[in-house]
Amino acid sequence: MSPETGGFLRNMVLSQRPARILELGSSCGVSTLYFAEALRTLGRGVVVATERDALKITRLCDHVRTAGLDAYVDMREGDVFETVVELDGTFDMVFIDVWADAYLKLFRQIERLLRPGSVVLADNMYTAEDAVRPYKHYLDNDPRFSTTTLDFESGVEFTVVVS
Question: Which pTM value belongs to this model?
């Protein structure tokens, strides 16, 4: 993730002031750190970070601990599709960065966790254009969502839940 994309994520948190962020596919935690650091600046909130790969989780936890951001990260290990089934309540912000061909299936599974005004950011709109096409098509053709692709290095889909 570029510093520009990370700065955008941080500013989104600072401007939207989310109480709960859901990060689907945390990898080693670069985006997690941007989210959690912004929450620390605000003095509240949590990132529910999901990751399947045990080695990546170890690195993520080390990075979070080193940065002193433990209080702002709730780490969930396991298959993301199983993890989201166990979640309840609503999320103010979601960041999707899993296998691109799974975006639509995963989004449909988390729709119940969104509220009007929730922001959904999805990475890799340019780098995985063919794989994300069904996801993009779904958003573009549903009046419940307002969406646009932001021109960051990999393309970030910026979606607002309208209703």
Answer: 0.95
